[in-house]
Amino acid sequence: MKRKNTLAAAALAAAALASGADAQQQQPAPVRMEVAFKVALNSIATGQPEQAVRILRKMLATDPDLIRVRLELARALYEAGEYTQAQEQFRIVLSSGELPAAVRANVLRFLRAIDEERGLRTSFSIGLEAPQGAGRSYETDDIDIDFGAGPLKFKMDREDPPLTGLALSGAFRKQWPLKEFESGVNLTGYVRGSADLYETSGTFFDKEAAELGTGLQWTWPRTTSFVEATAGTTYRDKEMSEEYIGIGTGVSWRTQAGLTTALEVDFQDVSFDRYPDVGAQRTNASVTVVKPLRGRDQVAVKLSYQRQNADRADIAYDYAELRVGRRTEIGGGFLLEPSVFAEGFWQEEATAGLAETRTEHEFGVDLRVDKTDTFIFGRFTPYVEVGFSKRTSSIDAYSYRDTHISAGLTSAF
């Protein structure tokens, strides 16, 4: 708590230094904006950061370029314990070319404090969405099966999906300090968990997944690394689909301008309910680069790769995805998050009865729109997400066009 109070006091002092620069680059704000801003600052000072978040979000809905307001929004989110969103807002603030050196240094200290923050943090979302595959239009339902006597043509028996279902997701992370080294490196321990639930009519499209991890984290002024052990399980159609245990590691670093790079890799031992006597080993690796822009939005590029080795070569594969996205705030309190992606899937050997391996490529676009200045039940903001993709497979029955749409609420703090 002492660290949070010290950082908060420093932020106020640094922000005061920035106010002169703000006055030069912006026209004087209307009186009502000044009053609202003072109320927000007072809310933070008196331990009501959630109220400040609501006020500051509405101010940014009027003008997303108000760097001073965004700085205080980041601080309010930090005080409210919403560290992920606070981290994003602080990172965006760093991309402003008008930011005084004292403010920049203080923002970087805030970002390190977020990495080291002790205590419990949580996030939650609820939405309505069509089940996976509901918007698919397959190229054909015919598939050739060959068990040695020549190919036979069969028609795929595909389940008719319901129109919509309920999607819930949540996550938590609890960490505590372990040691401060004289070199300036701090060591923390943590436990984290996440869960996803999708429920709709019938059970065929239902899905439940959970993951639990625990590890150690080392932090420097602008670098964080970790090593952790994980365990997870996935249920489909009310039956266990797969479970795994693994170990992972990663490192991330950021520049003074907010450019953030993260490298992660993990190794998993996987078992499947469908193949009880088959063991599999899975390797996941990713690199993510996030570049904030102009003090109001950011661009992210993520390249991920997955390799699965297995006792059966037909369930061994390589998978890769490249995704490029942008988060842009526009007037009216709308946060736009468009993205484009490309995927590739390469099966090692053909499934028994099929004449060839599955080699697939998919390209698509997604768009998510959040209404950041509208609060439901005091702490949730609404969103809508739509997407379109096209998958081409070496086996025509697995080629399709896909559309999806969902809407829901996500926690604002």
How is this structure best described in words?
The chain has 413 residues and is of the alpha+beta class. It has helices at 2-25, 31-45, 49-62, 67-79, 83-94, 101-116, and strands at residues 119-129, 137-138, 142-145, 152-155, 165-180, 186-200, 207-219, 223-236, 239-254, 260-272, 279-293, 297-310, 317-330, 334-347, 359-371, 380-393, 400-411. The protein has 2 domains: 2-116, Alpha Horseshoe (Serine Threonine Protein Phosphatase 5, Tetratricopeptide repeat), CATH 1.25.40; 119-411, Beta Barrel (Porin). Helices cover 23% and strands 49% of the residues. It has a 14-stranded antiparallel beta barrel. The chain has a two-stranded antiparallel sheet with strand order 3-4. It starts with a helix and ends with a strand.
